[in-house]
C-alpha cells in the first residue's frame, strides 16, 4: 500500500499527518507503529488522521494514534499541526475550526504569526476521570487541589512519590521536581506510565516551577516515551500547578522542543487555552506492506 503523508512538528513533538478526507486508509495498529518507527518507517511520536466532518457544526474529525499504534483521545501539539495542515492544503479557509476528537470537540484558532491557539476543553481532577484507582489512598491537600501518593517499586526505585493528576481528555500525572534536567525521566517515566493505579496508563509529567509564571516541563508520554514537548501535558501540568496554588493564570511552559503558552482561570467550569507553533517539515510517500504482524 502506497501512502502519501506530511511530516509536521509542534515544539519538537513530531507527527505523520494523513489526509483521509476522501476515504479511509486501510490501516491497522501495526501500520501506525510502522509509520512512527524511526528506523523502518517515517518516524513520529503520533500519527494524525484528518477525516471529514462527522456531524453538523463540526469541521473535521481528528484521529490520533500513539507511536505504539494505540488510538488516544487528545494531542495538543498535534491539534495545532492539524489546523495548519487543513489550511495549507486548502481543505478549509476558516481561521477558527471545531474538530471532533475522542475526548470531545476542541476549537482551533489560527493566529497571525503562524502559531495556533487551541481551546483544549475543561480539565478534570476527579480520579475516576483519568481513570486513577484511588481506593485506600489518602490525598495530601494543597491549595484548592491535592497530591496523591504513588508507590513506585521496580528497577532500583522503592519510594512513595506524590503526584497531582488531571485529565485533559487524556490522563496525566504530574510530579514536581527541583530540577527537571536532573529528573530521572527515563527510569521513573515508564514506572508511572504503567502503574497499576492507572488502568489505562498515564502520561507522566515532570514539572519544575521557575516562578509563578514560568515552568520547565518534560513528559514521558503514554505510548510514545519521552517527547520533546506534550501539549496536553503542558495544559495538565499548569492546571495542576494553579490548583496547588503555585502558578498564576498565564504560564510559559519551557520544554526541550520549544515554548508553549498556557492560560486557565482556575475555575473548573472554564476551559484551558494553549498557544504554540506548528511547522511542516516535509512531505513524502511510503510503501507499507499490506500484511504486518500485530
Ligand atoms: N503529544 C501529545 C499527547 C499525545 C497522546 C498521549 N501520548 C496519550 O497517550 O494520551 C500532546 O501534545 O498533547
TrEMBL record:
Which InterPro entries does this chain map to? DAP_epimerase_AS (IPR018510), DAP_epimerase_DapF (IPR001653)
Q: Which family does it belong to?
A: Belongs to the diaminopimelate epimerase family.
The Gene Ontology CC terms held by the record are: cytosol
Reply yes or no: does the keyword Calcium apply: no
The molecular function terms in GO held by this entry are: diaminopimelate epimerase activity
Q: What class of enzyme is it?
A: isomerase
Name its GO BP terms in alphabetical order: lysine biosynthetic process via diaminopimelate
Protein name according to UniProt:
Diaminopimelate epimerase
Gene symbol? dapF
Stated EC number for the protein is: 5.1.1.7
Key word Amino-acid biosynthesis present in the record?
yes
Q: Active-site residues?
A: 75 (proton donor), 75, 230 (proton acceptor)
Q: Which reaction does it catalyse?
A: (2S,6S)-2,6-diaminopimelate = meso-2,6-diaminopimelate
Q: Mainly resides where? A: cytoplasm
**Pathway in which this enzyme or protein is active:** Amino-acid biosynthesis; L-lysine biosynthesis via DAP pathway; DL-2,6-diaminopimelate from LL-2,6-diaminopimelate: step 1/1
> Which keywords does this chain's UniProt record carry?
Amino-acid biosynthesis, Cytoplasm, Isomerase, Lysine biosynthesis
- The entry marks the following residues as binding substrate, namely 13, 46, 66, 76-77, 170, 203, 221-222, 231-232
Subcellular localization, per the record? Cytoplasm
* Subunit and partners: Homodimer.
Q: What does this protein do?
A: Catalyzes the stereoinversion of LL-2,6-diaminopimelate (L,L-DAP) to meso-diaminopimelate (meso-DAP), a precursor of L-lysine and an essential component of the bacterial peptidoglycan.
Q: Where is this site: Could be important to modulate the pK values of the two catalytic cysteine residues?
A: 172, 221
